[in-house]
Design brief:
450 residues; alpha/beta; Rossmann fold; Ribosomal Protein S5, domain 2; 3 domains; four-stranded mixed beta sheet; 25% helix; globular
Length: 450
């Protein structure tokens, strides 16, 4: 009697695995997202990788570190997000919405890397070589040392890379790769999982730095099983505001550096250009003498950015007052309005309150609480704030201003852009190095009442 093939069910959106079909995924709550996949032996995919050697555990004293420099991408912003560059033998996953600029950025990275006498191979299964050439001629120039390959069979890619031994390999994209012995369609959960295992072995055993492009789901996460993000060393996400030309590359995971680092790019006719001073960009066109406009400073990873928070408070023409936000958490705004009404005796129940962060930036940092409250009060009373002042601080339910992290970095960024005054929590000012206060007036705030 023939042995019945084993199958399992995967969620197409988040990769949740179940032994039976479910109408709704218990992980991401998506309906009708489960697909049936055959369980295959991964050894059939990686049989060419098996060395058949006896394994011997080692102590850390026996491990020798190679002091090799990291591969520089040619973009200082991207290098910072990666922790100084691309580590040899690492696996980097970059995800983003279609058309956001993933392939364009990687082509520019390839051009910069191969100019430093590094061997680079770009593998694409989504575009033909003619299509790649058309885009490459528009955004960058390549020498004959840069090689391209149009292939979707991950086993063929593995064998080719063993012979070529490139310093950097780009795979665009993981959802188009096919693994030998897997009957699933390209992009299915099992195909993504098996293809990623082959590339993982290729990177770790041969010291090849590999960047994988990943498509994202409607929730904004990389499509496929969660094991894909656990397997790679670094995860980068493209974020954008379609009303602007800015692109933010945010680091969500990094085994070689800090997380939540960001790189800011601007999309133009000739590709992406890095923005080294994002604060000046986001503050450009700031109105002078207008009420409800306040500057604050957020910190992404270790990078400070000044941004403007605008508020408009006006009488409501409807039965229920509206609370409209852009870039600020809606629930947090409701809490701050309640604090203003309770602690400052300002009635906003019949007023529409609109709060927005200019430049398309989104922030959930609690340090912007003080700036939001000052902007709302400024608009309500129609009194402009000081044009050269910055407000930073988390506000508690009793109206107290609580300490924030990285206060020293925020002060340095404010001084760099010529601001003369900064309002900070009293707890931060008391513990601060006094040498940082030269050239700027620091106001200690303990409660919103003062």
């Amino acid at each position: 009697m023939a042995k019945k093939s084993q199958t399992t069910f995967f969620c197409k959106e988040c990769g949740y695995e179940s032994s039976k079909w479910l109408g709704q995924c218990p992980e991401c709550k998506t309906w009708n997202s489960f697909v049936e996949e055959k369980i295959i032996d991964s050894s059939s995919v990686l049989k060419s990788v098996s060395r058949g050697e006896k394994l011997k555990p080692m102590s850390l004293s026996e491990v020798k570190l190679d002091k090799e420099e990291k591969i520089k991408t040619g973009f200082s912003e991207l290098d910072n997000a990666l922790g100084g560059g691309i580590v040899k033998g690492s696996l980097v996953l970059i995800g983003g919405a279609p058309g956001i600029g993933k392939s364009t950025l990687l082509l520019q990275v390839c051009s910069n890397v191969e100019k430093n006498n590094k061997k680079v191979i770009y593998v694409s299964a989504e575009e033909s070589l003619k299509q790649i050439k058309l885009r490459a001629d528009r955004v960058c120039k390549f020498t004959d040392n840069m090689k391209f390959l149009n292939e979707s069979n991950v086993s063929n890619i593995y064998e080719t890379m063993i012979e070529e031994k490139p310093d950097l390999l780009i795979v665009d994209s993981i959802q188009t790769m096919k693994a030998v012995g897997n009957e699933g369609m390209p992009g299915s959960v099992s195909q993504v999982k098996e293809s990623s295992e082959v590339l993982f072995r290729l990177a770790k055993e041969n010291g090849i730095a590999i960047i994988i492009v990943g498509h994202i789901t409607k929730e904004g996460t990389v499509a496929g099983p969660k094991i894909l993000e656990h397997m790679v060393d670094t995860v980068l996400y493209f974020e954008d505001d379609w009303t602007k030309n800015f692109r933010l590359v945010r680091c969500k995971k990094n085994r070689f550096g800090s997380v939540n680092e960001i790189a800011v790019f601007e999309m133009g006719n000739n590709g992406l250009t890095q923005v080294e001073n994002a604060s000046e960009i986001f503050l450009a066109g700031r109105p002078s003498g207008a009420s409800g406009c306040v500057v604050t400073c957020i910190v992404e990873g270790r990078r400070p950015m000044l941004m403007e928070i605008q508020s408009l408070v006006c009488k409501s023409n409807y039965g229920m007052a509206r609370r409209t936000v852009n870039g600020v958490d809606h629930n947090r705004l409701s809490v701050l309005i309640a604090i203003i009404e309770k602690r400052l005796n300002i009635d906003l129940s019949g007023m529409d309150v609109l709060v927005s962060i200019t430049g398309g930036i989104r922030s959930n940092e609690p340090s912007i609480d003080l700036a939001v409250i000052v902007a709302i009060i400024s608009s309500y009373k129609n009194i402009p704030t000081e044009p050269d002042a910055i407000y930073c601080g988390e506000v508690g339910l009793s109206g107290e201003v609580r300490s924030i992290s990285n206060a020293d970095i925020r002060i340095m960024e404010a001084k760099k852009l010529g601001y003369k005054k900064i309002f900070l929590p009293k707890a931060n000012v008391e513990k601060m190095d006094k040498s940082l206060l030269d050239g700027i007036e620091v106001k200690a705030v303990s409660t919103i009442l003062n």
